[in-house]
């Protein structure tokens, strides 16, 4: 992978020629397995690599990793495992299989609110102790050794014309080059939908890029975008959770977390919020290191 600095494309050999190419090259396709081995796949999603200060992170939506937790509304403590699709095949026992890069040590958050215990004596503590889960998970992969390169697949438009070639090296997003939502801006999201595994080995899907997304409103839970040119429904968006949302200048707005069919809107977790969680984890790790040194 190659890093993108400031607002310029800096790869010396194969810099993105268009914004569409850049968006496609920073978007990673994700699979989640119930086992450390990739064959036991339970769901699909998206994600991205981002550099913040001197560290490299892999970031995706927490409901991609912990789908059952979000269905139940509480942490189940079930362990599942994230892999990134390298978009290449290798032969094993005479058959081709997809190659994936494992991502370990994912960090995620819970938040508990016990305030109602102090205003209503009839409330059962076990009832109100429900986590307000944050829909982001990330891993510091700064010291991770990438054994195989991460490539693009071919991206075509709805007429079948090629927008981005296959076998281009994936890119890293600079998390310090971001944007705030603006009514005049337009946003893009790319990823893979209609995901499935055939013959228990090959990852099959449809690659898509949705553009001309528009700012709709700001709410406590996040930023909402409208998609005037596309229908917002699970069929056309499932698999894109965790995708980076990029504006027309190539700057990162945030991460797609879910679609809302009723309002025909997309919910985005702002990158500013994601950075808050990253900095929080950095402080925890520094404090832990000091504690271990003193101990």
Low-confidence stretches: 2-12, 114-118, 123-131
- The number of helical runs is 6
- The ordered string of helix (H) and strand (E) elements is EHEEEHHEEHEEEEEEEHEEEH
Q: Roughly what percent helix?
A: 10-25%
Gap from first CA to last CA:
39 Å
Major sheet:
8 strands, mixed
Number of DSSP strand runs: 16
Mean pLDDT value: 84
Please give a structural write-up.
The protein is of the alpha+beta class. 17% of the residues lie in helices and 39% in strands. The chain contains 6 helices and 16 strands. It has helices spanning 19-26, 62-65, 67-72, 125-128, 234-237, 271-294, and strands at 2-3, 28-33, 41-52, 55-60, 81-92, 95-103, 137-140, 155-156, 162-164, 171-174, 186-198, 202-219, 222-226, 244-247, 252-260, 265-270. The strands form 3 sheets. Strands 1, 2, 3, 4, 5, 6, 7 and 10 form an 8-stranded mixed β-sheet that branches. The longest helix has 24 residues, at 271-294. The model is unreliable at 2-12, 114-118 and 123-131 (pLDDT under 50).
Give a quick precis of the structure.
Helix content is 17%, strand content 39%. The protein is of the alpha+beta class.
């Amino acid at each position: 992978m190659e890093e993108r600095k400031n607002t310029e494309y800096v790869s010396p050999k194969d810099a993105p020629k268009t914004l569409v190419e850049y968006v496609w090259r920073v978007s990673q396709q994700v699979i989640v397995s119930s086992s450390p081995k990739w064959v036991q796949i339970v769901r699909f999603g998206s994600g991205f690599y981002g550099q913040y200060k001197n560290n490299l992170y892999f970031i995706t939506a927490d409901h991609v990793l912990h789908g059952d937790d979000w269905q139940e509304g509480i942490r189940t403590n079930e362990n599942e495992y994230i892999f990134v699709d390298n978009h290449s095949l290798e032969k094993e026992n005479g058959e081709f299989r997809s190659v994936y890069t494992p991502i370990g040590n994912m960090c995620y958050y819970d938040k508990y609110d016990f305030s109602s215990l102090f205003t209503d004596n009839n409330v059962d503590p076990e009832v109100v102790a429900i986590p307000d889960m944050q829909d982001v998970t990330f891993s510091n992969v700064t010291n991770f050794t990438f054994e195989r390169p991460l490539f693009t697949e071919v991206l075509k438009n709805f007429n079948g014309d090629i927008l981005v070639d296959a076998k281009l090296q994936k890119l890293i997003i600079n998390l310090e080059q971001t944007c705030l939502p603006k009514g005049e801006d337009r946003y893009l999201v790319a990823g893979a939908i209609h995901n499935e595994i055939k013959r228990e080995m090959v990852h099959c899907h449809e690659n898509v890029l949705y553009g001309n997304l528009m700012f709709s409103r700001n709410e406590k839970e996040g930023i909402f975008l409208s998609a005037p040119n596309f229908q917002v429904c699970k069929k056309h968006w499932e698999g894109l959770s965790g995708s980076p949302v990029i504006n027309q200048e190539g700057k990162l707005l945030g991460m797609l977390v879910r679609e809302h069919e009723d309002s025909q809107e997309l919910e985005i977790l702002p990158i500013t919020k994601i950075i808050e969680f990253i900095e929080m984890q950095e402080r925890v790790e520094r404090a832990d290191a000091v504690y271990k040194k003193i101990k």
